[in-house]
């Protein structure tokens, strides 16, 4: 039953579409005749190209010289580096000057490094990291999080005196937890055997 209903709907749709298909060729013929009557220029001729005598030869030569392709266009560099051409016109990556980075739009572009220094944008950070490349500071410098760095106040004297005791307590808790986990595994092994 469902198949018959589907079949009838398809036939009705085809019947409704059929008259529209027959009317289209008449409309296109009228449009083509109108275009042929209006056009006085031979078919395929471009009116701009017909009057070639008005152009100067110097303009044609200037267009031929612009054809040179930029070798840096397809040469990709990592963050903080830009492509420049050497004497032999070969592309190479060099460190970007942080002052050439675009100005930040808002606070959301700021980034914080692992040494708690805020940079205006990731571009400024990677450019600075590139200039420090090969040094101890540059090797250790990493992007910590996005956003301005949070203020870390200096430790008070009382906190400095408490530190060894708190560190000892923390380490003791870690070792006790690891010992208890190890005992639980040994009990599970005994139950399996």
UniProtKB/TrEMBL annotation:
Q: Name one Pfam family in it.
A: SPARC_Ca_bdg
Give Gene Ontology CC terms. Answer: basement membrane; extracellular space
For this UniProt entry, which residues form the secretion signal?
A: 1-17
CDD domains, per database record = FSL_SPARC
Give the subcellular location.
Answer: Secreted, Extracellular space, Extracellular matrix, Basement membrane
Q: Which InterPro entries match?
A: EF-hand-dom_pair, Fol_N, Follistatin/Osteonectin_EGF, Kazal_dom, Kazal_dom_sf, Osteonectin_CS, SPARC/Testican_Ca-bd-dom, SPARC_FS
GO MF, any single term: collagen binding
The Kazal-like domain covers 94-151
Keyword field:
Basement membrane, Calcium, Copper, Disulfide bond, Extracellular matrix, Glycoprotein, Secreted, Signal
* UniProt family annotation: Belongs to the SPARC family.
Q: What does this protein do?
A: Appears to regulate cell growth through interactions with the extracellular matrix and cytokines. Binds calcium and copper, several types of collagen, albumin, thrombospondin, PDGF and cell membranes. There are two calcium binding sites; an acidic domain that binds 5 to 8 Ca(2+) with a low affinity and an EF-hand loop that binds a Ca(2+) ion with a high affinity.
Protein name per the record: SPARC
